[in-house]
Specification:
heterodimer; A: 162 residues; alpha+beta; Alpha-Beta Plaits; four-stranded antiparallel β-sheet; B: 181 residues; 2 domains; 5 helices
Chain lengths: 162, 181
């Protein structure tokens, strides 16, 4: 049975065609480093190279996929990277969200259900910039920032089957 | 934010024995081109070679070496998990004795639904947790069932933990590590 017609595991969302599903799932596992990588993957999936490229372009255009290509390791690039949290009372939440998100260094910002209710990732040009950005945020917002840089990363293969 | 790639990006050994050094300028161009993604052409490394002034062999050697060095984590899709239907996103945090955190962190990565796992510092007295893992799932009941499996599997029934579901993403973008143009 080809991967295109194979049913996905349970607990997966179901809004994609069989072809899209096969392409998304297969390419999350990487692309071989060969001269004709799309032809190689297409053959594995039992589809044509043109269909694979067309599906990829379409998924990118529809913004289902963010991008296709190498993921560079942020920490290896010499910049600073950390996870930070704040405890913001409800009446101030919108104001502080606006202030924090104004900064270019803020890569993600999630509201979470906890006493510490604002969680964001800071990515800076140099490791030393982290402390400066945190001090800026504390000064502008009037609330303390809990800085929680990673001490060890346990490597997980990110995979979101559809 | 403009970051210059570290020097190890430029130390690419020539593919062919006796081949000349790989152009540093070309490698920097390649690094920038790759940031935009892999070209959707039948021969993407050849396309990158034409855009960065290298040969196809040099491009493939550079990508191979950057992967081996861990500079490139992987070559593949970058998905928006929310768009794919993974809208329930729980950060599960644990207070693990320091001498066990490494082993338990590694064990957690074997659970297929754990999508990230990091050791981070406690911030006492407000924050006693030192191990953070993410579970991305279709909905909350399924994420909580997966968490139950994780607890049973790892024997964490008596380990203090908290589940922080996200309720809103105010900003979700990848950081750009090479200068924007």
């Amino acid at each position: 049975m080809s991967a295109v017609t194979e049913r996905p595991e349970t607990d997966t969302p179901g809004t994609f065609t069989g072809l899209e599903r096969a392409v998304i799932n297969r390419l999350q596992c990487g692309l071989p480093l060969v001269r004709y990588p799309y032809a190689a993957v297409a053959e594995e999936l039992g589809i044509s190279e043109a269909d694979l490229l067309h599906t990829l372009r379409d998924l990118l255009e529809r913004k289902v996929l963010t991008r296709f290509g190498p993921m560079f390791h942020a920490g290896e690039m010499g910049g600073g990277l950390t996870l930070a949290a704040m405890r913001i009372p409800e009446p101030d939440f919108a104001r502080v969200t606006g202030q924090v998100n104004q900064l270019d260094e803020v890569a993600h910002n999630y509201r979470r259900e906890h006493d510490l209710n604002m969680w964001f990732v800071l990515a800076t040009e140099t490791p030393e910039d982290i402390d400066r950005v945190i001090a800026d945020i504390e000064a502008v917002t009037g609330y303390p920032v809990y800085n929680m840089p990673k001490e060890e990363e346990f490597h997980v293969h990110l995979y979101f089957p559809v | 934010m403009i970051l210059s790639p570290s020097p190890e990006y430029l130390a690419i050994a020539p593919e062919a024995p006796g081949g000349g050094p790989v152009s540093a300028w070309g490698l920097l161009r390649l690094r920038r081109e790759l940031e935009k993604g892999l070209p959707l052409t039948p021969k993407p490394y050849q396309t990158l070679a034409e855009r960065s002034g290298l040969t196809e062999d040099e491009v493939m050697a550079a990508v191979r070496q950057w992967q081996a060095q861990g500079l490139i984590k992987r070559l593949g899709l970058v998905v928006k998990h929310r768009t794919l239907g993974y809208t329930a996103n729980a950060m599960v945090v644990w207070d693990i004795p320091d001498d066990q955190v490494h082993a338990i962190g590694q064990a957690m990565t074997r659970m297929p639904f754990v999508t990230l796992c990091y050791q981070r510092p406690r911030r006492l007295p407000d924050w006693p947790y030192n191990l953070f893992c993410m579970i991305h799932g279709i909905d909350r009941p399924r994420v909580l069932a997966q968490l139950d499996r994780l607890i049973a599997d790892q024997g964490l029934q008596h380990t203090p933990h908290a589940v922080l579901f996200s309720t809103k993403a105010y900003r979700q973008r990848g950081a750009c590590y090479v200068g924007r143009h």
